[in-house]
Amino acid sequence: MIGLFTLALTVSFSTTVILLKFAEKLNLMDAPDGVRKHQHRSIPAIGGIAIFFTVATVAFTGIKLNNDNLFDYSYILMWALPCFVMFVVGVYDDIIN
Fold first, then answer.
1. 42 CB contacts (<8 Å, ≥6 apart)?
2. Exposure winner among 23, 27, 45, 62, fewest CB in 10 A?
3. How far apart are CA 89 and CA 82, in angstroms?
4. Could you give the CA distance from residue 91 to residue 97 in angstroms, rounded to a whole number?
């Protein structure tokens, strides 16, 4: 359990640091508009991406640790498909808004 927590912390931190470097280049910045967004400067909109990669990494690792058959698709589809749909919708929303 501590190992999975440490893995989640490491993946989350490293993914966030890496994505911060590319957020401006990839146009993943949330700029203030004076109506809905009241921050003083543009901020990176990458939190959902970092969370998705962290959850995916820890879930695959947890499945592998608890199940010898990594390719048991019922376990993978149970969490991966809804998470992927939320990920795509979140990235789309960040790009559009």
1. 29, 30, 31, 32
2. 27
3. 11
4. 10
Pairing of β 43-44 and β 29-30: antiparallel
Token pair of 62 as six digits: 């947890």
Q: Which helix (H) or strand (E) holds 29?
A: strand 29-30
What tens digit of pLDDT does each residue of 42-92 get?
Answer: 778 788 888 888 888 887 787 777 666 655 667 667 777 888 898 899 888
Please state the φ and ψ torsions of residue 70, each to the nearest 5 degrees: -65, -25
pTM of the model: 0.68
Query: Are 76 and 42 contacting, i.e. CB atoms less than 8 angstroms apart?
Result: no
Q: C-alpha 33: how far from its chain's center? A: 25
Beta-bridge partner residues of 43: 30
Residue 38 in tokens:
């009241």
* pLDDT tens sequence across 18-34: 888 888 787 777 777 76
